[in-house]
Amino acid sequence: MNAVFPGSFDPITSGHMDVLTRAARIFDHVTVTVMHNARKQGRHLFTLDERLEILREATAHFPNVSVDSFGGLLVDYMARQETGSVIVRGLRAVSDYEYELQIAHLNRQIGDAETVFIMAATRWSFVSSSMVREIASYGGNVSEMVPRASASALRRKHADVYEEREAELQAQTAGS
Ligand code: PNS
Known about the structure:
- The chain is 48% helix and 17% strand.
- With 176 residues, it is α/β, with parallel strands linked by helices.
- Strands 3-2-1-4-5 form a five-stranded parallel sheet, sandwiched between helices.
- Helix 2 packs antiparallel against helix 6.
- It holds the Pfam family CTP_transf_like.
- It is found in: Cytoplasm.
């Protein structure tokens, strides 16, 4: 049985990687699909191409995982998949459940698409792409919270902030 792991992945986090690792053990094949909307492109830190590049690098070691993108309804994407394919979504905490339950019901209602939830390990319960983006925008260390490909891309995106913060920290150390 095949699965689709959809999301914004702006960028992919260690929590996503944990869910993906578990999904790749359960399903024959998992497609990680960046769901994008041209009208919402400006709301993301990384462009679609950048997110795909990060995903390809972060998932290269999985023999049964591929990366894709789609700019429409998830149910329309699912209709193009092999019969019986399911949507995989990760749950970090109870707070995710209400939102995910609503989307899962909607996707079943409008497209007969089935969703399977996989719980991320508790150590990732507090990690989200938005928090990672926030920390990185101040030059903070996110290396534990994201795969190496995301960390490098965040560092490149905020190169000036990281350099400035590192210089400040070095100056503080030298002065103490
Ligand atoms: O990583 P995210 O932002 O939580 O992922 C949400 C996503 C992209 C899976 C969801 O917004 C989605 O499926 N978008 C595609 C449009 C769609 O099908 N919307 C109807 C269900 S909300």
